[in-house]
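Protocol step 4 of 5: obtain the predicted structure for the target chain.
Materials: sequence only (see below). No template structures provided, no constraints applied. The aim of this step is simply to have a reference model before the mutagenesis design in step 5. Sequence pasted as it appears in the construct record:
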Amino acid sequence: MSLLQGIRDPRDLRALAPEQLPELAAEIRAFLVQKVSATGGHLGPNLGVVELTMALHRVFNSPEDIIMWDTGHQSYVHKLLTGRAAGF
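Step 4 output (structure tokens):
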């Protein structure tokens, strides 16, 4: 099982060792490129916020702490880290 497949909510992300985070970021990028290439969507803004989104979910206690994006074009990674990968 890939690291991304094991992420159902931000607690799973927080449970990963720091050494695993670059691998997860690479998996997220590969997933996004594959899905957006097939279905269309906004790729660039999402590729640019992978590590940022991971950091926010590791530092803050989402969903209790609200994370608000200024545009939906940057929210794909957030959706992946909150268990909504099946919606892509």
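Step 4 remarks: The CA atoms of residues 33 and 43 lie 7 Å apart. The chain has a mean pLDDT of 93.
Proceed to step 5.
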